[in-house]
Amino acid sequence: MAFAIRKKRTRELLLIWFFLAPSLLIFALYRIIPLLWNGVLSFEFWSPYKPAEFAGLYHYEEMILYDDVFWQSFWNTAVFMASAPIGILFALVIALLVDTPIRGRNVYRTIVFMSYPVMTVAVGIIWQWLYNEDVGLINYILRSLGMSGRGIPFLNSSTYALPAVIVASIWQVVGFYMIILLTGLQNIPQSLYEAASIDGASAWQRFKRITLPLLRPSIFLCFVIGIINSFTNFDLIYVMTDGGPSHATELLVTYIYRVAFKLGQFDYAAALTIVNFAFFVFLAWLANRLSGGEAGAVEST
Amino acid sequence: MAGVSLRKVVKRFGDNEVVHGVDLEIRHNEFVVLVGPSGCGKSTILRMIAGLEEITAGEIAIGDRVINELAPKDRDIAMVFQDYALYPHLTVFKNLSFGLEMQKLPTAEIKDRVEHAARILNITQFLDRKPRQLSGGQRQRVAMGRAIVRRPNVFLFDEPLSNLDAKLRTQMRTEIKKLHQTVQTTVIYVTHDQIEAMTLADRIVVLRDGYIEQIGSPDEVYNRPNSVFVAGFIGAPTMNFVRCRAEGGDGGLALRLADGSALAVSPALQERFGRHRDRELVLGIRPEFFQLVPGGNGAHIAPRIHVVEPLGSDTLFFFDLAGSEVVARMPPLTGLEPGDPLPLAIDMDKTHLFDAETEKAV
């Protein structure tokens, strides 16, 4: 009897592993193993033509003590991240507007959202043209308004390049933020606002005391996406500025690419990746912690 | 001291008129229940009183004050919503104190009022909890507490018990009645459940398609319904309706049913039915006004039983009477089964007569 049960149990286990195996295999092959290997690599001297040699903390020391570009790209990544609230604020205003019963709100929603599914490379090229010193729309407007005599070379200026790229990035993601916030808004039952207005809350008080607190999980989700975005926004930077001028728009992710595939220092790039990864995990943990582990959750009555 | 007056109140959504000139006087401290099937306009009327819907035409006054243009908060009302509308991110205490904070009352008074309401409703031990940690019945109490703390002139209830299970609903019904006796305010209560209406109301307002069908005490709407609609809506199981014609005369008057059979009319009632001679009528019989006549002597009808539903305290018998499905409520354990003949006398004195065309009581 017990034997029969055990046999059945074994068969069930076999079946479970049979179904899990393919995805586990792929996950291990493309995620776990590269990550582990990357970790090992960061403690070695390694190049494609030489046998590996143990390097200890050499790369990390190099990075933290002597590499100004690392610190520049670290700082740029942080600035990129810190710009997320601006995008979220924009998105919140838009979401509130298209949540009101205005005529054609679905059209507005679609238009605002449409920037998101556009290929990032296309977004980069569009904004490159908009920022163009001679024929760009933005410089044309500035000149027409008499605000600048000569064109501003936005993407070639070490002052303007980072803000310019951030604007393009926000433009692309704002539609996505809006959809998240709009979903959050629509999940707040109308009766709460009715109850609050009977309770004597003004429109502002209803926003502050009902909408904002109940939207908190959605806002945090946007933050997390903003953080991820600042770590993965490789394509936009690559197309628009390639990290230049003189690393003014270098993010950690573009710097890692440059070190690995242009300078061929895979071992150093591996160390950068580990730092990048640790930084990211720390922020994700922090964001989740601050949101009480409920990013994206819908609070129900 | 505040009653509520509705004068020729109309509500239109676009071209669609859903409330057609309703007149209603509600006295101070009265418990009035608006009842009707969904889409009859009862919730819309309540929401107009609350200020959550604009009043298209007509006038609503609380006390002597016309409130058409007043914001909800200035109407001195409190409302309990169907979904309770508790603020999910706030504790029970904060849910109760929210309105008082908006009124900028002193903290000590807020605390007093909240604790007082919590005691009345027996929710003192939940004051620190969030709504999601409460059961349905507890949330319902909190929703009522939020209304109580405001000490309003008028309480509005919008189907407050419809999200509760049957047992809890019965219990909360009693609590609401007790609450009304304790706090002594005008209550306007919307429901589609006629039992709630009967048990709670001082007066019932039966609505249909945006018109008031009848206003009266529970006793009146039950015993003297003025239309087939009210008669069918109030009471469970619902009243039985059979088409008939009063024929013959001079002591020989009988009610001829659709299948040609006749119900004899006792001499005492000859006059009542005689007035409607040769007119298409609907005879209304409450299920409890059938009597089993074991020998069959003096029975009006003896149909075959279709279905037997024992309820414990009573047993329901379903049968066919001249083409209409009819139900009779009998004492339990009569030992009868489907297919058996059921010799019944009808308490003709307690029957209702309606005009078949207008469906109004005659």
Structure description:
The complex is a heterodimer of chains A (301) and B (362). With 301 residues, chain A is mainly alpha-helical. Chain A has helices at 2-41, 58-66, 68-82, 84-99, 105-113, 120-131, 137-144, 161-186, 190-198, 203-232, 234-240, 252-262, 266-290, and strands at 44-47, 50-54. Chain A has one domain: Orthogonal Bundle (MetI-like fold). In chain A, strand 1 and strand 2 form a beta hairpin. Chain A is flat, with a radius of gyration of 25 Å. Chain B has 362 residues and is of the alpha+beta class. Chain B contains nine helices and 20 strands. Chain B has helices at 42-50, 92-102, 107-121, 136-148, 166-183, 194-200, 218-223, 228-233, 270-274, and strands at 4-13, 16-26, 31-35, 57-62, 65-66, 77-80, 154-158, 186-191, 203-208, 211-216, 240-247, 254-257, 262-264, 280-285, 290-292, 305-310, 315-321, 324-330, 344-346, 352-355. In chain B, the strands form five sheets. A six-stranded mixed β-sheet of chain B has the order 6-7-8-3-9-10, with helices on both faces. The mean pLDDT of chain B is 88. At the A-B interface, helix 9 and helix 10 of A face strand 6 and helix 2 of B.
Compile the SSE list and pairings.
The complex is a heterodimer of chains A (301) and B (362).
Chain A: H1 2-41, E1 44-47, E2 50-54, H2 58-66, H3 68-82, H4 84-99, H5 105-113, H6 120-131, H7 137-144, H8 161-186, H9 190-198, H10 203-232, H11 234-240, H12 252-262, H13 266-290
Antiparallel strand pairs in A: 1-2
Helix pairs in contact in A: 3-10, 3-12, 4-5, 4-8, 5-8, 6-8, 6-11, 8-10, 10-13, 12-13
Chain B: E1 4-13, E2 16-26, E3 31-35, H1 42-50, E4 57-62, E5 65-66, E6 77-80, H2 92-102, H3 107-121, H4 136-148, E7 154-158, H5 166-183, E8 186-191, H6 194-200, E9 203-208, E10 211-216, H7 218-223, H8 228-233, E11 240-247, E12 254-257, E13 262-264, H9 270-274, E14 280-285, E15 290-292, E16 305-310, E17 315-321, E18 324-330, E19 344-346, E20 352-355
Parallel strand pairs in B: 3-8, 3-9, 6-7, 7-8
Antiparallel strand pairs in B: 1-2, 1-4, 4-5, 9-10, 11-12, 11-14, 12-13, 14-20, 15-19, 16-17, 17-18
Helix pairs in contact in B: 2-3, 2-4, 3-4
